[in-house]
Amino acid sequence: MTKEIVHIMNNISSWLRYQKQLGVEIIPKGPELSAFLNHCVKDETSLQGLTATREYGDEIPITTGLDELRKMIENCNRCELHKSRQNIVFGEGPEDARLVLVGEAPGREEDIQGRPFVGPSGELLTDMLNAVNISRKDVFITSVIKCRPPHNRTPGHEEIAACSSFLSHQLRLIDPPFILALGLVAAQTLLKEKAPLKSLRGRFHQLGNARVMVIYHPAYLLRSKGSWQRELKRVAWHDLQILEKEYAKYR
Ligand code: SF4
């Protein structure tokens, strides 16, 4: 069976599971289903790379390993963020991780320590992973951009475009079956989508060989208050459980 057919079947399977979650029990043959199948076939043209940003990843030779890539990033001055960073945050975790977590950008603590998710949102992330029996030491954690934006602002489009080849290459080397996109920036960058997070979460998206789950960013959960925060945490818990159920088969 070719990779293309596997991909189409995974897409159909993922879509059918999502429909089932919505309570749909019968799928009539109609224009929506035809459009979906056409979409799957059309998507094959972008399947060779793991991410939607592979045009940037192509700048980096496939023979470049993770250590060499880290050195490239340490010397990177492609965007203005190199001027204010204390450390790059390359990411950390096993090189053969079956699950890669992709955040948005380093924050203050991450910039100081040069490690991903070490601030308060990192603590929450670790707790969330533990709650679904995923050990942080088993996953690779990185982010869309590798240097901290001043005042933790959202990275700009040009910064993301300048940096995305590094993420693309990391994903290509690790080649995980699962990716967890943390927050809107990671989700929209990986999936090349403009849709809001609420419409991207709660189901798998196929990206090359990987299935991508999208959840709310832990920092957003921390910033939220009261019943809204409880609702967001409930939703994140729900989404992580969907991921864990499939991920457990690969452990
Ligand atoms: S954010 Fe990325 S592109 Fe910009 S300087 Fe840092 S490593 Fe280079």
Q: CATH topology, which one?
A: Uracil-DNA Glycosylase, subunit E
Could you name the ranges where pLDDT drops below 50 across 5 or more consecutive residues? 39-57
Helicity level: 40-55%
Query: Which small-molecule species are bound to the chains here?
Result: iron/sulfur cluster
| Biggest sheet architecture | 5 strands, mixed
Strand portion: 5-15%
Strand order of the largest sheet: 2-1-3-5-4
Order of helices and strands: HHHHEHHEHEHHEEHH
- The CATH H-level superfamily is Uracil-DNA glycosylase-like domain
- Per CATH, which architecture? 3-Layer(aba) Sandwich
Mean pLDDT over the full residue set: 85
**Total beta strand runs:** 5
CA radius of gyration is 18 Å
- Whole-number total of structural domains: 1
Class per helix and strand makeup: alpha/beta
Shape: globular
Task: Kindly provide the name of the CATH class.
Answer: Alpha Beta
How many separate helices? 11
- Span of the ends, CA to CA: 24 Å
